[in-house]
Design goal:
The protein is mainly alpha-helical. It has one domain (about 1-5, about 15-80). About 80% of the residues lie in helices and about 0% in strands. The longest helix has 26 residues, at about 55-80. It is flat. The N and C termini lie far apart (about 45 Å).
C-alpha cells in the first residue's frame, strides 16, 4: 500500500497525504452511490472511533454502528452486482 501511495502521489504530483485524502473522497463518493445513509453512518462511526477524546464506551458504540453500516453497504453492493434472472 505504501508503494502504491508513493507511486500514485508521484504520478498525481502531490504529497502522499494529499493522494490518500483524494482517495478517501473518491471511496466515500462511490460508497454513497450504493447507499448514502449507510455511508454517512460509516463515516460518522469512523470519526468517533478515531476521536482521541472519546471514551472506550463511545468507541465501542461507534464500532457497532460501523459494523451495521458495513453490512448495509455489502447488501447494497450485492444487489447492485446481481443480475436479474427469469421473467416477471
Amino acid at each position: 500500500m505504501l508503494e502504491c501511495t508513493r507511486l500514485g502521489a508521484r504520478v498525481a504530483g502531490c504529497t502522499g497525504a494529499s493522494f490518500v485524502t483524494l482517495g478517501i473522497g473518491i471511496w466515500a463518493a462511490e460508497l454513497a452511490e450504493q447507499d448514502g445513509r449507510a455511508t454517512a453512518i460509516l463515516l460518522r462511526a469512523l470519526a468517533d472511533i478515531m476521536d482521541p477524546k472519546n471514551k472506550p464506551a463511545a468507541k465501542a458504540g461507534a464500532e457497532a454502528r460501523r459494523q451495521y453500516a458495513v453490512k448495509q453497504l455489502h447488501r447494497a453492493v450485492d444487489v447492485a452486482m446481481s443480475h436479474a434472472e427469469g421473467r416477471a
